[in-house]
Design goal:
Length: 356
Amino acid sequence: CRSKHIKFFCRCLQVLPSGYTSLDTSRLTISFFALSGLDVLNALDSVEKERNEIIDWIYSLQVLPDLEKTDKRNRCCGFRGSAAIGSKYNPTGVPKTENNISHPYDWSHIAMTYTGLASLLILGDDLSRVQRSAIIQGIKALQLPDGSFAATIDGSENDMRFVYCACCISYILQDWSGIDQEKAIKFIQDSLSYEYGIGQGPGLEGHGGTTFCAIASLVLMGRLHTAFSKKQIQGIIKWCIFRQQTGFQGRPNKPVDTCYSFWVGATLKLLECFEMIDYASNRSFVLSTQDESVGGFAKWADYHPDALHAYFGICGLSLMGESGLLPIHPALNISQRAADHLKTIHLKWATENLTT
């Protein structure tokens, strides 16, 4: 159903049903699922005409520093999820009106900053309009004393998901000065459960999604084998392998779910033992959740498809080398093609630093 999946992701970029209204402030993440899904399907040409328009829209969501002030706003830089509160700037960063007044809660969100940067890479942007130093200061302000990260500057939850987002942002921008890595690693170590799954935080239940976030963060920091002992890594591998029933479940005694074919599968890829899974069983489950009428993948068979599960269903198949799908970079959760584009940007930045 490749052609239908392409149409499904294109619809996600244009119009969504009313059931998605609660996710209005997360538009940037939904767009990421659609764009990256098209990329893995090797179908970005479907949005070629809109490419520049989408790039400009993403940049319009960048929260910029106010050079005339030194208050909290300058610790809120990054990307917002939609124009619900902010987006008072043109893509160039120039205020749309002379009487531009920022909303007091017009803050960046760490997950939106990650998906915004990832989407720009997928679209082939050179990140030249990204306020790199401001974003790094923004994530620095979000790290808490226990090493975890909050999502926003105030009024937010904090857990392993946002540690991962902080690491992805730092890796993409090639600047780790916004993270106290030792504190972040300690938070990850303390979140290892007795059964060797990794939870949202210390003392919490091991979970497939947050196990991925923790392991991917350590891989991006280059600290996997120093953070955990060989015995602990073997325990994490065993816990992940045991999550496969037909597809993968996120926790023991829970039903299998399409998205964990990526979360747990990518964790096993990063731990270099993905070949231990039952490919045929996992593939059969994931394909059973695709909607053959309108495209997309669902959480379970005979369920409504959605952008998140459609994307991670595609990624789960990509990990297994499904024909017609591009390989993905499991730690950054983007295609290898987009990750290779990032390498060229890093090389350009390194060359510029040498010449200056």
